[in-house]
Amino acid sequence: MLFRVRTALFLSGGGVAVANAGNGELLLFRSDGELRARAGGEGGGPGEFAQLTSLSVGPADSLFAYDARHRRISVFDSSGAFVHALTLGALDTLGLMDFVGLWDTGELVGAFHQRTFGAGLVRDTLVVVTVSRSGVPDRVLGRYPHLFTHWGPHALPGGGRAAFPIPVPLSPVTAVGLGPRALYVGLPDPYTLIRVARSGSIRVTRQRAPAQPVTEGHREQMFAALSRSRMLAEELAVLRGVVGPSSLPAFGFEPLTAMVGEQALVTTEDGSVWLHPFLVPGDTAVPEWPRFDSDGLFTGKVRMSRSFRATAVRGDTVLGVYRDESDAEYVQAYRVVEVRR
Question: How many angstroms separate the Cα of 128 from the Cα of each of 158, 183, 304, 324?
Fold first, then answer.
């Protein structure tokens, strides 16, 4: 049973590795879909996960799985056997690190969500770094605008007001992904893709897209989705008083409704990039994923069901997670069919 699948990735022999966060397991499938191995599981011991959020495939189909609660990368071999673990360190000025992935050289990449302190609407920063094998930040790859937050002061449920940071509804969220030869950073306002090569060279491209204003209808759709979650009415009341940017992001996930570990930027084996279009909860539009080549140049869009979230691309095959009407999850693969107009 699949539940809260964070990602599904291709293995070199045609199989698939799945990070199933619902029970903290890694599932390894053959190319015909038959399950051949399980790894991990819920817990705090070696090779176990308290909060499985991401997965990367390393050399020889080794697996690097990240536990966000323990800030620990667990490494498994291609058979699913646990090898060793690595705890990511912190920087005094930046806080805790998240795992982005690893290049084909084996070099690890992490990212810090750096808080911006202030009053009212502020924007946090994402700092992307390489990480040594001892878990220590080694080299800064870049600092990028990240999530908008609002410090208030906010009304408290029991009365009174206080200043504390709240993620802004419908805020842009910076996306990061690793290609075979470069790091890619997507800034959804404006529509910007940054390519950072391992050598340190940087290329920035922008795809012009018409700005879509945030309407009261967008906000009501989002709050309707939040009201169906476990969020308390008092929390929703505080969020309703938070106003962010006037335009919707060009791509990415809504920060208040997204699952931890969902990635809005998917890189392919040839270094091209696919971006998850921004979907307002409750919207019924057919998503169109913009694509960019390895140099960051726009090459077109792919239409996909809004019930399907792509997590990996190999050639003309797209792998991802599909949710049916009852919210059951399936890992599925589709062919990309080019339509000429």
Answer: 39, 9, 30, 35
